[in-house]
Amino acid sequence: MSMFYHYDLEYAEVFIFDEFLVNQIREGITVRTEHNQKLREIIDRHFSNKPMVYIGNRHFSYSVDPLTYIGTSKIHNLLAMAIVTTDEISRNNALLEKYFYKKPFEVFATLSGAMAWVHDVILNHDGD
Known about the structure:
alpha/beta; 4 helices; 8 strands; 32% helix; 28% strand
């Protein structure tokens, strides 16, 4: 793994790695469709046309407008999404949100589990 980048946004912290980014939304935020624009800018800057995966680290309590996933699904090089949480309510919310996202979407109890899955997703990507 090479050097990573960090963004401290008003509503989140974003950590960029070789094959994925980790987004940690701040406490009490509601993620809405307009957040997709900043996400797209960050993905374009660091991944351009390289396939990548989004990892949401749900360390804090926040909500997500499920319609956000419609726009997120359209980011062409975003192959999949992983959510990391140990909180049962957050896990159940993520499992519901999964129905709005049109690409692979998994929920994990650990960041290391999500990272291993990311590596498999990237390795098995057929380039389409």
